[in-house]
Here is the input.
Amino acid sequence: MPTISATGVGSGLDIRSIVSQLMEIERQPLERLQRKQSLLEAQISAYGQLSSTLSNFQTAMEKLSSVSALKVFNGTSSNADVVNVTPSSDADLGSFGIEVVRLAENHKMASKEVLDSDTFGGRRRNDALNIQVGSDAANTISVDLSTAKTLSEIRTAINEDPNNPGVTATIINGDNNRQKLVLTADDSGADNALSLSTSGRVRLSDFDFQTVNDIGGDTSLLDAELNVDGYSITRPSNNISDVISGVTLNLVSADPGNTHNVSIERDLAAVQEAVQAFADAFNELRASIKTLRSGELEADSSLLSIERQVLSVLNNPAVGGSYGVLFEVGLSIQKDGTMSLDNSKLEAAMRADFDGVAQLFAAEGQGFANRLETLADGWLASGGLIESRQDGLKARVDDLLDRQIAFERNLEIVESRYLAQFTALDALVGQLQGTGQFLTNQLAQLPGANQG
Here is the structure.
């Protein structure tokens, strides 16, 4: 804006003060726009708080909105140093006796000890060491020895081959510059046992590979062996998920002759925590709506819409299971509008009919958490209620900013006009004052002007 530099020179008018006061009046519409902008920005911030609360509500509903989410199990072992258990959401309940006869091993073979400078091959173009993984000849890596290689160079050729079928080579360095080449199958079990062959002038006896595993030449002993309730089973891995439905047995160490118990039970405590989180999320949402309604979103209809939709779900029973209303599993609305949980009642309901409790919360299109999660998803979705309201408010803020910029430019013009007008007035008044003084002086010089 133009700078008001001084008072009037000719008239003594306080041009700075006059123009400043006039501009304060002119700025009042701009200040109203700025107040509107601040109000809208506060509403946008309030919607951000509501969005955060709804996100917490959505997360709490997710933990109860599907039957699989409610199927939480505990797996325990009488000796976790021998065998432990990891249940999935489809686990079979029960207790099982496990004897770990032996663990699955990765087949390992070691060459004889040679000097680190000794080389192999280099006598014919087809000199090679061939390593096959398992019974499929297609899973073979061939190390080209047409140019003689040390054990270290053979190791590098194996490990860097992009078509390596599943074998890792390692060098073990001993005393006096001597070393061995160790070949290890990447996967355990007899199906991944290694077999070796050579071509050209290279002979297996040049390497003299020997199996490191204590299996007496019987590669079937690379498989894990266990007894489950007296039923003998062998598997190529120590993590076994196809013996007890929905359960992974993790074999840790062999303990032949001893049976250890593993048990699969429902984790009722985890479900109770999820149901408590359901109640807490409901209470947080109600409290947030109450706060926002008495603040920045006092007249906003969205809060009423959200509240009505939530209460509509809670007031419509679920169908299809043994339980239809939340009160039957310990959830109730108190006089102050908050939800509380009776844990003993919930536990009793779960023990009486766990599937019924699961259906009450998670049945597709019927369960309370399932329906509430669908509502939350809609509110928070792209183009949903929250985003639409925020976008609308942001558009109004942008419009106000544009209007303020235009108004400020106009104020500069108005201020310049006032300055020009008052400067001209100052000059005119000064001129009139000068004329008046001149006339006074002239009249004073007329004959008889000073006579009494």
Observations:
- Residues 385-444 form the longest helix (60 residues).
- The first strand starts at residue 73 and ends at 77.
